[in-house]
Amino acid sequence: MKDRIEDVFRQSAQLQESFLARNREVMESVIAAVAGVLKKGNKLLIFGNGGSAADAQHLAAEFVNRYILDRPPLAAIALTTDTSVMSSIANDFSFNEVFEKQVRALGKGGDAALGISTSGRSPNVVRALETAQRMGLITVGLGGPAGSPMELHCTYYFAVEGASTPRIQEVHQLVLHTLVEMVDLVLFGEAKT
Question: Which pTM was predicted?
Answer without folding.
Answer: 0.96
